[in-house]
Amino acid sequence: MLRSYPLIGAAIAPWTATAAAAEAGPSAAERFFDERIAPILSRHCLECHDTALSKGDLDLSLKIHAMAAGEDGPFIVPGDAENSVLWKEIESDNMPEDRPALSAEQKADLKKWINEGAIWSSDELDPMAHTRDPRAARNWVQRLTNQEYLRTVKAATGVDISREAAATLPAELRADGFSNTAYSLTIDMGHVTAYASLAARIVKQMDLMAFARAHTAGEVNDARLDHVIAGMGRWLARRPLKSHELAAYQKIAASVKAENGTLPEILGHVVEAMLQSPAFLYRIETPPAPGSDGRVAPYELASRLSYAIQGGPPDAGLLLAAETGALLEPDTLKAQVARMVDDPRCISRSMEFVAQWLNLGRLANLRPNPEKFPLWTAGLAEGMKEETLGFFEEIAWKRQLPLTRLFNARVTVATPRLAAHYQLPRHPALTKRDGLLALYEFDEGEGTIIRDRSGHEDPLDLEISDPSKIRWESGTLTLREKTSIRSAKPFSRAVAAWKKSQELTLEAWVESADPKQSGPARLVTLSSGSGERNLTLGQDGGRYEMRVRTSEIGNNGSPGLQTPDRIVTPRLNHLVYTRNREREGRFYLDGELIATTSVAGNFNNWNDGFHLLLGNETTGDRPWRGTYHRVALYDRVLPPDEIFANAGGRRLYDLADVPERGGLLTQGSLLTIGGDEASMVTRGLFVLHDVLHSAVGSPPPGVDTTPEPPKPGLSQRGMAIKRLETKSCAGCHSKFEPLAFGLEKFDGIGGYSSKDRHGNDLREDGTLQLPGQRDPLPFKTSSELMDLLANSDRVSRNFTRKLIQFTLGRPLSGSDARAIHDIHRRAMESGGTYRSLITAIATSDLLLTSEPVAAP
Amino acid sequence: MTTRHIPRRTLLKGLGTLAIGLPFLEEMQAATPAGQAAAAVPVRAFNVFFGLGIPTPLQEEGFDGVLEPLKELSDKLMILRHVDHVRGDRPGDNAHYDGSTAAFTAEPPNGTARSGGPSIDQVVRATHYPKGMPPDMVSTLVAGTFFRRDRVSRYTKSFNADGTVAATMMEQPRELFDRVFGTMPGLDIGDPRQQRLKRSVLDSVMDQYQFYTGPRSPLGTASRGRVNEHLERIREFEKRAFSPEARRYRTPDQPPDSKLPHGGSADPGGEGIDITLAGLTEEWHLMAGLYALAIQCDRVRFGSLNFLAAGERIRLKGDYLFNGEKRFHFDDAAQRKSSGANGCSHEWWHNFSEDARNEQLRAHAHMKLREVAWFLKQLDDPAFTEPNGRTLLENSMITISTESGDGRHNDPKRELSGIFHAITGANGRFKTGGILDVKAEGIDVYNTMLGAMGCPKKLGPAQRESRTVGSILV
Predict the structure, then answer these.
(1) Which residues in chain B have their CB less than 8 angstroms from residue A696's CB?
(2) Closest to A362 (Cβ–Cβ): which among B152, B163, B269?
(3) Which of A76, B280, B320, B334 could staple B328 via S-S, CB 3.0–4.6 A?
(4) pTM, 2 dp
(5) Ramachandran quadrant class, B436 (left: phi over 0; alpha: psi -120 to 50; beta: rest)
(6) Greatest CA span in chain B, whole angstroms?
(7) Residue ranges, chain A, pLDDT below 50
(8) What does the pLDDT average to over B428-453?
(9) Reduced to 3 states, what is the DSSP secondary structure of residue A436?
């Protein structure tokens, strides 16, 4: 039996939630509006009569506008349908225009609503919520999501079962924007089978006696088995076991005893059953009885709070607060929520929210056309995901900024591949000097000598043959014309080291001046001619190539290892080639492994009389033009994490000097939503739906909706403008395509350019029409657009709605409007940060109460 | 149930690399008058879906046009033209979602992963098996060969009464095999003592799920239904894990690994995938063959199978042969002179014009019906003639449909009108043998079918007056 705690209600009210409003609840008239009227207006009227279009000066999206008067009189006269313009137009079937007339039932509802005072439940219509069938928001028992299951297992048993679970648990479906939507967490054989096999595996990995002792008051022995089962059960079920559950586990114990089983064996089978029980796999709650205040019971509240805030089960402290009933006291509740929000698990949970909200999982599946986007790699996709998550963590947690700053904060977190893709300023890093044979920093600034900075007593300096062909700049050396740079003496010291270690790393920070130069054009070579080498790093058109001589490969080092084609760009690249004793050759580009090969043989046949050359072959006929930032040679293999770190690592970038970037919408993770063609329709719809929380209708009759790709003379914006000039398209497209105008300079994978591949000039100016605001806001740059979004209350409220939906695990409906409004207000009063928002949600009626349900 | 005069083990061999052992068979008596009239032939209902649809004008060409592949089965099917799902239109939703969700439900979506109501196969199942399927039978089998997946209704075609998906999609032949014929991983315990203890664990787990579905359950209706699903699956699990005959008859032979992309990689950002006709049909035949086998073995009586998703995006390549004759050469990307989404066959539907040859669209639609017919023919195998002298195809209620009657996306009403349907006779309940212009709403067609199947439940709003489409009834 659940204990009852009479102290809730008024005691909590001063601090939590909707207080007096919640006690009063929506009136019958407000419910009628939410359930009957708002859906009609949202589905049939807002297409033309929202703030953006306001046809006939009627804007039904905001109460204040809807209740105003037009040329023909008041649109809505409370209590008098016959004199309301809205009713007259609907009754006569003049409206909706070019759409099916409302049904008799809908008309009757509208008339009733007006005649009974035209009561609104809130100040605005939320088409996303009101067009949804109220059943979509119905409270379902929540099965633990796969993530929650893994966290719960780990927290409850200490066993990490994630590897096994990844292979057995069926993937979750994305429903209404999130993967934790309760109605979609269905159950099938795959789940049952997985839960059974995982439970057995978990038990095998547990120290069952220690587990039992940890959760049992007093001794653990056969004589106290009921206490032991009750203690373990309380922990795994996240509440005390009910009598029928205890009886079920006692039966298992009896069965094992009858088979002469040991105590650990009993515990193992009992725990195995507990891990498959509904109390473990589901968040089962007893709905409050009709007529009650709707407050959830303390153990249920503990689970609600912990899964909402941390995505896992309640810890011992929270369970204790539930057990004593203290959790229902405002101060304790407040302290527990604050404690959980301060826990790193809250950060992880918030990342899960962001990943689901922005559907970051799709990045791993993208396959942009390689002809158009040769630089797309799995590493770049992963980098985009990491950027958005890292950026969120930076803004929401490290800096504790309002969530709206996610749209215009001028920082980002980028991996080397992403930083190269974005052309962010990067600088060579050197994390370890171990095994350095030669290091050229190109920091001389003048003269004809490039010093070996490796620190060896016997430096291998380089000499520039014709200084008129080069240019020194800060920390770089540019070969402007055909020339060569040669070591003053043979590289015998290094060759001896390579022969000894049989390991090699060549690291180069370079910018090619010409993606077409070939030969291969020599970036770095240790050779005596075009067919005789120890090693050569070259450029062969769009590829880099590394040739290495070994005892089993000819003196030419051919065939070499080539990178994929068309990756050479006039941008700074970090190239690393390694060859280990296991004969594996690897090419890394900006920290990402992009090519591997097997290199048979050893280095014992290397010639120790060769000189090192940069920029040309000894024969002078393989020139390379470009800029060197660093070249380093090692007699060891740099491991991937060191290469990643040397490439710059995953780090925070200040974007103050990168005006085109700053904020979520300028990140590759979201820009790729537009597909290869960077569709303004898709991007605009994303902003409309997922940033501005609005919706549009289907295309009207008679419109050719075939997407047209850009072509010479017609950019994406050009096509968008054509649509906006077409009457039949403009109604809806004007609501979302301009939202993407500020992003036109970003291509399908988030690269930035002022022209598209057809040579069309791209623009970034436009106007922002925020739903609910009459006057469009002009912007000249994408940066200004981001500022407008960051300063928009609409955007801010969207965050609130999204996080509430994720936290509750269900879509929101019109009847949630009041609670949403209250949560948003309280979060904003506390700074609008993630911390304040999750705190407001956790202490709202949406968490603290449940809809009373009559027994079936 | 099926006749047994032919050694079934022999019959069940020879499907690709498969060699399936005999599963146990369960005789079921239909619970309704209509079912009883069917005398010992189990009630079965399946939905067969193919993506993108057949434009209404092409349907008018009958078996001389893209419907040609169904001609061979025409005496066992009734092609239904002019079936409308306009009520499936949900403003703001992509027509692919609307049309696809309306197929077999006659309802618009209710959220992105739910239909507005049950699919007809599930209504029949709930009527004839109100307490659930026997535990040694797969409750509902949902499978398909498809790629696009950004919304569930693009590819799942069986929905529970509350609109949630009726079963997890089996999108690889291996998954389907495991679901229907496979062993329970990790539970092949040789030690009888261990088996008894494992059984005890499972009994305890079942007791607890039973509590939450029983009279003392604190849960509301929706939640109780969810827990009941869990309980039914555990019962099936128990039967398959511990039933002696189940263990004896299962064989370890499995279909080969799929060569096609699945999961997220099958739908790279909605931009489509490159695929050959040979690769596509090879997997489909394995999938559809296994599905048919599951029906032939009486392991499955309800569910859905789909060939390509609603709004599918593939760039197909390969020679298309029909009855040994080359009909077309698929090369969508080259013929569309485009890559990515614009290079996909999907766009032929957007470009449909009544005045044009629509050559590519015709070839794709023809190919899809060829493959649908391939599946239907497996069920028409005379070796599986049932006691009433009819084949599984003739005795089952099989509904074949698609998502649209016009794929141009420019008029929801037109797009959701004239959606191709075909039905089987369902053991003499429905007329077969031709093409019928029913000129009715899908909801009325479905409700008429449900009525004939003995289902008191109707689809759609309770207060809606149903119109019986008598022309489909025998």
Answers:
(1) 92
(2) B269
(3) B320
(4) 0.87
(5) beta
(6) 74
(7) 1-23, 701-702
(8) 96
(9) strand
